[in-house]
What does this fold into?
Amino acid sequence: MKINRYVDISTIDRDAKKDYIDRHSPFIHCAKSAKKGEKLKVTVKLGDEYPHPDDFDHYIAWVQLWNGESNLAQATFVAGALGNQAGHVEVDFYIVPTRNLKLTAMAFCTKHGLWQSDEVVVEVTE
Amino acid sequence: MKINRYVDISTIDRDAKKDYIDRHSPFIHCAKSAKKGEKLKVTVKLGDEYPHPDDFDHYIAWVQLWNGESNLAQATFVAGALGNQAGHVEVDFYIVPTRNLKLTAMAFCTKHGLWQSDEVVVEVTE
Amino acid sequence: MKINRYVDISTIDRDAKKDYIDRHSPFIHCAKSAKKGEKLKVTVKLGDEYPHPDDFDHYIAWVQLWNGESNLAQATFVAGALGNQAGHVEVDFYIVPTRNLKLTAMAFCTKHGLWQSDEVVVEVTE
Amino acid sequence: MKINRYVDISTIDRDAKKDYIDRHSPFIHCAKSAKKGEKLKVTVKLGDEYPHPDDFDHYIAWVQLWNGESNLAQATFVAGALGNQAGHVEVDFYIVPTRNLKLTAMAFCTKHGLWQSDEVVVEVTE
It folds into this structure.
């Protein structure tokens, strides 16, 4: 079992490889600072530029949201939730932080394995 | 195993019962019409008025989104994702409809079992 | 969203309907009595006589084990875990009871929805 | 997010560290050879010698079974499934192999993060 990591695709020459890396990578979108005890929306979205298939034998089956070593939430999908057309799997989790966060997301493609996002740090203030 | 169903709490006398029903019920919030093949945001949120505890031995462990008899997605949470304070578990799923939707949500409380939302119909047009 | 229930297939005339009901129904296999505080093996198996497809667009995606209103465990599968041939999805959960159990299992088929097993009572003694 | 890996505890001096590593590590127990197209039982069990707590704020929330980069199955538990006493989380998955397997298991502790088993190779013959 190995974990694939995102690589900045502007540093990559081959178009097919850019596409492959981008469409499998989960990206975390959220505010960079938050209030302790207040709800924070954290979006996990697959692919920044390139869409991923939603075929029965090739789709994104689940994504996980982690804070450091803690698995806060997991969303599991069926093939076809994106209408069986290429797209960007997306889910908004809502969490209530009590201290600074170090968020990462994982995503599992049924053909191409496990992918880890870059870490996103959220400063949490009183 | 039984499934608890939402009952309009304005029809209920006792405050404790209003609270109990409302905070355990998942509610679906989404547009009532959508375009075929375009992304639709579907929010599942627990409780319309009353918040639910987020204690280690009493929390909302998962929610599911169903279209008719098809389970589109499930989100699973750890206790503490809401900061161990009472709140409204919430998640936004994004789906791409190809025909009319009949959405329901299920939510599981680790102390008070399984709860089903009212059905929400979404008309999907070309 | 509706839940399909097992019906004793010996009471059913049509072979196709026997097959349909049997292969979608989860069955609980376990000892009828157990010791408090000792591990109990609980098998959830789909179909008593008829196997279910394991196709990418038609498979058993998950099973759940319930004790009364409490969801003890869930097992989620990918299509292909049974080698893409018809078979009986099966999982053994191990639980440690502290009082009498009323077990039910749920199973979700990606084409034919949610199915609930008959209840199995386990007497738990000191 | 980091992944903790099993280390042979006979090489470790401190008892507390032996305990810590062993009780968090998933172990795969299964036959070393299998027939193509026939059901294979794969047990994932936490801890070889030391039991893990099953407390509401400290338990094994899920285990996953992987074949190479493919996530075959996941089992998710509630706190209390082991009677709120220390024990070994255990689940038997049944899979049908079509070619040689390289199995690994992952386990998530709500306090001490993600742990990966050693790889187990299963030779699959016609």
Residues 15-24 of chain B form the longest helix (10 residues). Helices of chain B lie at 15-24.
